[in-house]
Each structure stands twice: as structure tokens, then as C-alpha cells.
Design a protein that fits this description.
CATH topology of the largest domain: Rossmann fold
Structural class: alpha/beta
CATH superfamily of the largest domain: NAD(P)-binding Rossmann-like Domain
Radius of gyration: 22 Å
CATH class of the largest domain: Alpha Beta
Oligomer: single chain
Order of helices and strands: EHEHEHEHEHHEHEHEHEHEHEEHHHEE
Strand content: 5-15%
């Protein structure tokens, strides 16, 4: 017999914020218990969250091993849009909801960062800064620099964030092209970009801007063949996830002059997910690449939003309300319906509502992606989004 008087527990598996005051106010304010940890492995997650009713995770992997060990978990909430750290299929099989944060929490921040990297790399800002600090006061330090107006940025994927980049690029007199085989050409054109194939994007772009999700299909989507196809004057910008690019291939491209430069908001090994990371990547030794620490999403306002939303999602689920941004509610409802046993009185209306609310089960369109949840990748197969 269920114990309806037991206080439910939410475990924050990991976080890199100064404290969890925002989450604590929301979770404890709803009468729930909050526990925190800094999990680096799935075994860590199991140790602290085996009997938790909900888990919130930032970087910690909550894979099939951890999910199989959970005894009463109802929901796993992701700080952010991408859910690749969670085995969504394993969660679905266990009837555990997975939620994310719709990408509008950081849409403007990521678009601004992408344009900042583009402009900084094109105008050699870091190179000038480093030179002037050691007494070299010469405009020639940045040679060659080409006029930005009239050039062509190419957007790889054309979701909400990429469209925000497109709008910003137009203000600099740029002609934007975009490749997204799952968006109709007319829709791309209506949103201000010329639709092209991936091959045309690589051939034509002066600035290749990656804003696609990371999935099995997009892992190393940009490798040696793609980089060799680009213009020798081209600049590669990545404000999506590091592993979309092969860093080994990119190092060769930058050091051997296949392309002119790069601006990266992440690198392939994704340092934030590694407990003992050291800056050994050879890209750090090049002066024609700008690297930022996966910070494109950051602003004080964005951080507050993502923390508030993730905490509120687990409260909604644990208090019998539907979450606003479920990843797998439809799949859970369908699998339970097919299995035969009836849903509980609490589950039936909640899962039905999650499956039927407008926008909660349609494929998303974004690079860091739009709500929610299932997105069709460049490359052909369906996948779950989200960095």
C-alpha cells in the first residue's frame, strides 16, 4: 500500500552554480525534500538518487545503468535543452518522465555569442589584443582581414536560434544561406535565408555557423572531407556542441590552411563533463581559433530561467500536474496503453494531457532546440535533442 504521507525527495545530481537557493525555494516551498550532490559517474548517481522521486541533472550522465537502479523515480529533469546525458529510451521503458527546458531560455544569448565569435574571428580581435599587450602596435598584425559586409554566412540547421542569428547577420549586410533538409525551402526563405543543400552550404559559406543538435547522426558531422570542401578563406563557428566537429580534422584544417579560422564555444571532449580535464587539446596552441567554455547560453537572466524551470518541472510532476516541456510523455502513454494494464487515477489524465497539449509532442525545429523534444536530424534519422 502506497505511503501518501511520505515526503518526496528531489536530488540535484550535479550543478556548477554557486548555490541551489533558487531550486530550494521552489522545491521545499512545495513541501518536498531537496538533496544535492556532485555526481561524476553513474555509480555516483545511483548512490545518491536510488530512492529519489525526482532527479535534476546538469552534466551528470543518467544512463540505463542508473535508471535501472532507481526505485521510485517519477521524473528526470535536465538543466538545459539537450537530453543526451539521459537515456530517454531507458527512462521511457521504466515509465519515468524526462523533461527539458525549451530553448527560448537562451535563444538571444546563443545568437549573440555566435555573432560575437564570427565578428571576433573575422576581425582578428584576439590576435590584435594579444599583440598590443606586448607592445606591437601595428594594423598589419591582423593581415589578411576581409570586408564582412556582402559575405555569406551559412547556417547548419535552421531552428529558432539559427533564425535569431540570421536576423542579426542581416544587420551587417550579410546574405544568409541555410541547410536544413527537414524544413521546407519556402519556410527557410520566409525567415530570411536562402535554402541550400549541405554540399552547397560547405561550398558557398564564408562563415559556416553550426547550430545543430548533437546526436549519433550529427557526431563528427564536420570532419576532414567537409573541411577540405570549404573555402580557404572560410571561418567555422560552432555554438552548438563540441563533438559535432572532429577536433583532429579541425586542427589539420586550421594549421594547414584549409580554412582561415574558427570560433568555438565547445571542443570535442566537452571539458565540463570531465572531472580531471586538462587543456591538452592542440587547438589551444593555434592563434587562428577563439575558444570559449561552452558559455554561449550564459547570462544572469538565462541561468535564473533554466534553474527555475527545471525545479518547477519536478514540482509539477511530483504534485500531479503535467510538465510544460516533457520529452517522452507521448511514448510513455503509448507504451502503457499498448501493454494493457490500466494507468493509475493520477497517471491517466496527466499523461493524456501531456500527449495532447498543443506543441508538446510535435517535432522541434531548433539547434539547441525548440520545444520539445523530438527533432529530426541532418543526416536522416529521428533523435531526441539539445548544447
Amino acid at each position: 500500500m502506497a505511503d501518501h504521507t511520505r515526503q518526496k525527495t528531489v536530488v540535484i545530481a550535479d550543478y556548477d552554480y554557486d548555490d541551489v537557493g533558487i531550486e530550494r525555494a521552489i522545491i521545499e516551498g512545495a513541501g518536498l525534500r531537496l538533496a544535492t550532490a556532485q555526481c561524476k559517474t553513474e555509480d555516483d548517481v545511483i548512490a545518491v538518487a536510488r530512492d529519489a522521486d525526482a532527479i535534476i541533472a546538469q552534466y551528470a550522465t543518467v544512463g540505463a545503468k542508473a535508471i535501472s537502479a532507481l526505485t521510485r523515480c517519477e521524473v528526470i529533469a535536465r538543466y538545459g535543452t539537450g537530453t543526451d546525458i539521459v537515456d530517454v529510451d531507458a527512462a521511457t521503458r521504466r515509465g519515468i518522465l524526462v523533461t527539458n527546458v525549451p530553448n527560448d531560455w537562451c535563444e538571444n544569448e546563443v545568437a549573440d555569442h555566435a555573432m560575437t565569435l564570427l565578428l571576433g574571428a573575422a576581425r582578428k580581435i584576439c590576435k590584435y589584443d594579444q599583440a598590443t599587450r606586448v607592445g606591437i602596435w601595428r594594423w598589419q598584425t591582423g593581415e589578411p582581414i576581409h570586408r564582412i559586409s556582402g559575405r555569406t554566412p551559412g547556417l547548419l540547421s535552421f531552428g529558432a536560434i539559427a533564425q535569431a542569428i540570421c536576423r542579426r547577420a542581416a544587420g551587417f549586410g550579410l546574405r544568409v544561406i541555410a541547410s536544413d533538409p527537414y524544413m521546407p525551402a519556402a519556410d527557410i526563405a520566409d525567415r530570411g535565408a536562402a535554402p541550400v543543400s549541405l554540399e552547397e552550404l560547405l561550398d558557398q559559406a564564408d562563415y559556416l555557423v553550426i547550430q545543430a543538435p548533437l546526436t549519433k547522426e550529427t557526431h563528427h558531422l564536420i570532419g576532414e572531407p567537409e573541411l577540405r570542401r570549404m573555402k580557404p578563406t572560410a571561418i567555422l563557428i560552432n555554438t552548438a556542441r563540441g563533438p559535432i566537429i572532429s577536433d583532429q580534422a579541425l586542427y589539420k584544417a586550421l594549421s594547414e590552411g584549409w580554412i582561415a579560422g574558427a570560433g568555438l564555444d565547445d571542443i570535442e571532449e566537452e571539458p565540463a563533463k570531465r572531472p580531471d580535464w586538462t587543456p591538452a587539446n592542440p587547438l589551444f596552441g593555434l592563434d587562428n581559433v577563439i575558444i570559449t567554455p561552452h558559455a554561449a547560453y550564459y547570462s544572469e537572466e538565462a541561468i535564473h530561467t533554466v534553474r527555475d524551470f527545471a525545479a518547477s518541472e519536478v514540482v509539477r510532476v511530483l504534485t500531479g500536474q503535467p510538465p510544460l516541456s516533457p520529452v517522452n510523455a507521448v511514448q510513455i502513454a503509448n507504451s502503457r496503453r499498448a501493454a494493457g494494464p490500466r494507468l493509475t487515477a493520477n497517471e491517466e489524465p496527466r499523461l493524456r494531457l501531456q500527449a495532447e497539449l498543443p506543441g508538446l509532442s510535435r517535432p522541434g525545429r531548433s539547434g539547441r532546440s525548440s520545444p520539445p523534444r523530438e527533432v529530426i536530424p541532418l543526416g536522416g534519422c529521428r533523435r531526441h535533442r539539445r548544447g
